[in-house]
Design goal:
- The chain is of the alpha+beta class.
- It has 2 domains: 6-430 and 470-585, Methanol Dehydrogenase, Chain A; 611-697, Cytochrome c-like domain (Cytochrome Bc1 Complex, Chain D, domain 2), CATH 1.10.760.
- 12% of the residues lie in helices and 28% in strands.
- The chain contains 9 helices and 37 strands.
- Strands 1-31-32-33-34 form a 5-stranded mixed β-sheet, with no helix packed on it.
- A hairpin with a 5-residue loop joins strand 9 (154-159) and strand 10.
- The chain is globular and about 70 Å long.
- It starts with 5 loop residues before the first helix and ends with a helix.
- 58% of the residues are buried.
């Protein structure tokens, strides 16, 4: 099956579209709208390579027959050991990428020579409101400028040749609730970006900024604000009817933290929205309404930001099933007709095919195990929600599949125009959801309304083993027309890398265990692999210079799966080494030998507290600490594992960190607005108890 070329259709539409604004500031040199729409095979000009975000390259020098001769051409180790999520961009012989903390780098794409770098000097205490690591997914290029959105909410335009700042603008409403981790996109001379921060009282939106000045041209909110203030448009007025209580006091959620796709054929911007906040609708009386436009794909006019359509994939989302996974545009033959469609595989486990112009539901299929629905209506696409999944009034946890990490999160999927298959990095896991009793919002920390303490992974080897066995991953090749799996590669753990498909009948993907591999696109046979020495979560890309094809990928494991999931985060037992790897045929480069993994033997002080303190500390840890330091105090590779911390041996030491902010420069801000000295001591006693429990299990 060979699908029609979206790029050719987009270029034709762009050339003939008379609805585009008459704007003299549109780029005429460097990277232009027309160039992005019909990018040369040798370049990678935007996050998903083309406007359709298909992540398919026509290059085929590296193919199923030659890939065995692929070797390391050059590499670069970054100065930050956190998760790396960027997709590099290549134009005019230069490779542009970002690392954690929103740093930007420009390399000679052939040799790896560093041309320039830019550090926006993001304050490290921004990390406290970044739910899922200090990550960044890459830059956009337009004209002769490179655009990066920083973790603390700035949009910065850099000179493409020198890295000097042309302009910078803070584009988030405040420095308490919002972050940006996504890569900007370009549409008709506008720079498009949203934000993260739903769990921190953010109100979701997407906005467009003039590429030359940074001036805001339009903004579309994804959830309604306080009705007493009036509504920005009819879309917000209609959305308000699907909420209840005083939802606006916690922002509402619906943040546009990743997926943004510009479709020149329709002149629409399609984007995904996060879940409603708080997760537990009973916690803030937001009710069981659909809570529009959360958990949805929304389409707006690219020039004005005016609402055009929406499709809600997860009504009343209380499971953190964000719809922020990448949206892919393609032309597919369905029931004998060519349809211009949007393809989406969000966290909730269903693969959706929608009409790109209208949002009309075409089909859906389950690409991963799920328990939150009893099925999908084949006519409307509306889910029949499993009554047991409405956990807000239950006394016992609902074990939901998938969990908040999602069946498919931000790690990009790709689509082959030759096979017609979509290649999805799939997570297979569950999560115990339980509503928190007598929950109240606070000024700091996650505002989810769920009880994380009561459902923390217990210090029991049997339960732990069962949980680990049920937590796996896969690379799934999905047929979007037949809505069925074509082939799969199973992994022992989730949180593996994004994918790249090429005309060489190849699919490239890194995994959580430090391997970067190539598979045949038609059958899934493993053809080549390379040890990256660290887990890979980013998506690869490919380019060519002077007739030589290269494949590049950012390596460095991290993100929410590492910082928050506790014992399952350590399943891969990986290092974190932040680096860029670039390959070509016949290259013989080698990486330096990795440092051995530390043993980190548990040696906690004796427990000296009371059971009442442990119960109190468990609840406080679950709400304020677990999102960064791991479920049940079992840390990953990025943030300190507090069971091993010397600070738990001293009440004064813990108090200086938690209350006085002694480590604020490292991102550990003071929690004095929410916690007292007695609270800090209760957390310390809980950590001591947990460390001793797990020490007793060592060697068993």
């Amino acid at each position: 099956m060979r699908i029609q070329s979206f790029v050719a259709a987009a270029a034709l539409a762009l050339a003939s579209c008379n609805s585009a604004p008459d704007r003299s500031e549109l780029a005429t040199e460097g990277v232009t709208d027309a160039l992005i729409a019909s990018a040369p095979d040798s370049d990678w000009l935007t996050y998903g390579r083309d406007y359709g975000e298909q992540r398919f390259s026509p290059l085929q020098q590296i193919n199923a027959e030659t890939v065995g001769d692929l070797g390391l051409a050059w590499s670069y180790d970054f100065d930050t050991a956190r998760g790396q999520e960027a997709t590099p961009i290549v134009y005019d012989g230069t490779l542009y990428t970002t690392s954690a903390w929103s740093k930007v780098y420009a390399f000679d794409a052939r040799s790896g020579e560093l041309k320039w770098s830019y550090d926006p000097e993001v304050p490290r205490d921004t990390l406290v409101r970044a739910c899922c690591d200090a990550v960044n997914r890459g830059v956009a290029i337009y004209g002769d400028q490179v655009y990066v959105a920083t973790l603390d909410g700035r949009l910065v335009a850099l000179n493409r040749k020198t890295g000097e700042v042309d302009w910078a603008k803070t584009v988030v409403p405040n420095q308490e609730d919002y972050t940006i981790t996504g890569a900007p996109r370009i549409a008709n001379g506008l720079v498009l970006i949203g934000s993260g921060g739903a769990e921190y009282k953010a109100r979701g939106y997407i906005a467009a900024y003039d590429h030359a000045t940074g001036k805001e041209v339009w903004k579309f909110y994804t959830v309604p604000g306080n009705p007493a203030d009036g509504f920005e448009n009819d879309a917000m007025k209609k959305a308000a009817d699907t909420w209840s209580g005083e939802w606006w006091k916690l922002g509402g959620g619906g943040t546009v933290w990743d997926s943004i796709t510009y479709d020149p054929t329709t002149n629409l911007v399609l984007f995904g929205t996060g879940n409603a906040e708080p997760w537990n609708p009973g916690a803030n009386d937001r009710g069981a309404g659909d809570s529009l436009y959360t958990g949805s794909i929304v389409a707006v006019d690219a020039d004005t930001g005016e609402y055009r359509w929406h499709f809600q994939e997860t009504p009343e989302d209380r499971w953190d099933y964000d719809s922020n996974a990448q949206i892919t545009i393609a032309d597919l033959e369905i029931d004998g007709k060519t349809r211009h469609v949007a393809l989406h595989a969000p966290k909730n486990g269903y693969f959706y095919v929608l009409d790109a112009a209208t949002g009309q539901f075409i089909s859906a299929g389950s690409f991963a195990p799920q328990s939150w629905t009893l099925g999908i209506d084949p006519e409307t696409g509306k889910p029949e929600i499993n009554p047991a999944a409405r956990y807000d009034e239950a006394d016992t946890p609902y074990i939901g599949t998938p969990g908040p990490g999602g069946a498919h999160s931000w790690q990009p999927m790709s689509m082959s125009r030759d096979t017609g298959l979509v290649y999805i990095p799939v997570n297979i896991s569950a999560f115990p959801y339980l509503g928190a009793k007598d929950w109240e919002a606070s000024d700091i920390g996650f505002q989810t309304g769920v009880d994380l303490a009561s459902v923390a992974m217990p210090a029991d080897k049997g339960v732990r083993s069962a949980a680990l066995a049920a937590t796996t991953g896969a690379l799934v090749a999905w047929d979007p027309v037949a809505q069925k799996e074509a082939w799969r590669v199973d992994y022992p753990a989730p949180w593996n890398g994004g994918t790249l498909a090429t005309a060489g009948n190849l699919v490239f993907q890194g995994d959580a265990f430090g391997n970067f591999a190539a598979f045949s696109a038609d059958k899934g046979s493993k053809l080549w692999s390379f040890s990256a020495q660290t887990g890979v979560i980013a998506a690869p890309m490919t380019y060519s210079i002077d007739g030589e094809q290269y494949v590049a990928v950012m390596a460095g494991w991290g993100g929410v799966w590492d910082v928050a999931t506790g014992v399952v985060a350590n399943k891969g037992n990986v290092r974190n080494i932040s680096r860029l790897l670039v390959f070509k045929l016949g290259a013989k480069g080698e990486l330096p030998a990795p440092q051995p993994l530390s043993e980190m033997v548990l040696d906690p002080p004796a427990f000296s507290g009371t059971e009442e303190q442990v119960l109190q500390g468990s609840a406080l840890y679950g709400r304020y600490c677990s999102v960064c330091h791991g479920d049940a105090a079992v840390g990953g590779v990025l943030n300190p594992d507090l069971r091993h911390s010397a600070a738990i041996g001293s009440a004064d030491a813990i108090r200086s960190v938690v209350i006085d902010g002694a480590l604020q420069h490292n991102g550990m801000v003071s929690f004095k607005s929410a916690l007292s000295a007695d609270d800090a001591e209760a957390i310390r006693q809980y950590l001591i108890k947990r460390a001793n429990e797990d020490k007793a299990l060592e060697g068993k």
